[in-house]
Every structure is written in C-alpha cells, then in structure tokens.
Amino acid sequence: MKGWLHLQSWTDPPEAILDYPTWHLRSASGQRQMTAVAEADGSPKGLLVRLEGVSQRETAEPWVGCIIEVPRAELPPLEPGEHYRHDLIGYQVRNLEGVEFGTIEGFEDLPANAVMVVKGERERWVPSSREHLREIDDAAKTILVDWPADL
Which residues of the chain carry a pLDDT beneath 50? Predict the structure, then answer.
C-alpha cells in the first residue's frame, strides 16, 4: 500500500490522534523514532496513515505494531475530576463494602467499555465507567468502586 499503515487509535474521537504534530513511535523491539504524519485517510476499517519519509511497504514494515507515544506536555489539559489512565496505575481499589481488590495494573479496552485490571489476591476486571467509579482520591491514591467482590 505504498507505505500506508492501519492505525488503531485510543483517542476520543479516534481521529484526534492526528492533532498531535509529532509522534514518538516505539516498536516492539524498543526502537524509537520521532516522526510526523504525511497523509491520513479514513476507511471502513479505521484510520490509515503514511508517515513522513515512508513511501514504500519496506520502509513502513518496521513500524507495523508500534505504539504511538505523545509527550505529556503535548496532552490536552484535564478538567476537574478527569484523569489520564496511566496516572491511575498503582492506585488501590476497594468496593463500597470495603473489600480491598488490589492495585490497578493497567487498563483494557473491551467492546462494551474500558476496564481496570486490578490485581490483589486475584485479578479482577472492573469497568471504568461513571456508573461504577464512585470516588478517586488522588492524595491517598485510592479508588472506590461500586462492584461486587464475588465477580
């Protein structure tokens, strides 16, 4: 495809990833490179991009499966009560009944919604929706959730 790559974006909306002028790409092997998007196009399967300096399949191949990293200074400012997911990693999670679930290890995006991956005595996947998140205490690094202990 002349150097075009399929892009899976986690921004909201997905096209917002194109608003960042510089991308820091990290390959599966750990190789890093700063680049910019030369062209972008939407398709039924998602976004397609061609990176600057990439015009052939062979020069695009090293970046298949890479992660796009954006420096924190380039992220939009948060509104009160908003958090970036990576800032919540390491927070302790407990439910309304006081059951300690463990620590947030990461997040997974599922078709229905995103979930917090919480590891304690066992691993739990807790929805990170407004319905289930009751309180985030940044000072104590804790999150209170409305989620049963037996799920």
Answer: none
